[in-house]
Amino acid sequence: MSKIIQKSFETERFSHSEAMEILNLPDEDLPELLDIVYAIRKKYKGNTVGVQILTNVRSGNCSQNCAYCAQSRDSEANIDKYRLVPYEKLLHDGQIARDNKLSRHCIGLSGIRFGDKEISEFADYVRNLKREVDTYICCSIGFLTLQQAQKLKDAGVNRINHNLNTSRNFYGKICTTHTYDERVENIKMLQSLGFEICCGGIAGLGESKTDIVDMLFDIKEINPQSVPINFLLPLKGTALADTDVSHLSAEYCLKILCLARLLLPKSDIRCAAGREVYLKGKEKWMFYAVDSIFASGYLTAGGQSVEDTIKLITDAGFQYKIES
Ligand code: SF4
Fold this sequence. Notes:
The protein is α/β, with parallel strands linked by helices. The protein is 43% helix and 14% strand. It has a single domain, classed as TIM Barrel (Alpha-Beta Barrel), CATH 3.20.20.70.
């Protein structure tokens, strides 16, 4: 194992079968894997953990059918639905990010395509927010045209989140209203404009380990600045509500996070939705691979408060990354 992992340290070159070996590692070998992964994390990311909060600026009523998503057109989940959150709510969250010196303020909008008027309206929100609290902003906002993306860049958006979610091969099982390749193309266009990219996925959708490896290799190709790894929370009312997630043991989740770190040693590896459930009590080990987490919940699921999240980091012996 050490030989395989040493490759990540030195060349960042990994074969598909070597990556599969990491996911298939016996649980009793996990401590050894974590030790080696920690050395890589320490080299590139030190001992710090960044914290983000997320505001859902537009919720529900999406035209798409992503099976895991409570905001999809097919979802019967009981969630708040609104076209645009009041600016005061966005500002309130921005103030929390600023006052706690969080790494960034992430902003999600449900939907896949937006009219120019909607983008202008949202760009005004961003411009005002930048003026009032000047936090580092990352947006999750479907597919943009080149002009729309430029408008958001000019308004002050620093980074855009666009996840691959799963492998190309499995994509048709979780969504049929848009394609994997459309996602990849959108990311390339955003990179051509100079945006930083946040690109990750979800484990537990019914995919195989090969799908996880394929997805992570595609993400490696994109080379995003941050990689959020989510673990499925089967939400009532969504198509995946009854999905069996019993294989998402803490050990398996840790191996996925370790593999993400090995394949993308210099990126932020973020443990996103599901960490409070699947990695509860194992956070110290999670931080051996992960240098970034969310506080205050996710788009349609609750989470841990900012204070408790900071305490979690320091109790685990890591440093809370303070943005200056
Ligand atoms: S993940 Fe995004 S595109 Fe897919 S249904 Fe949810 S809001 Fe729509």
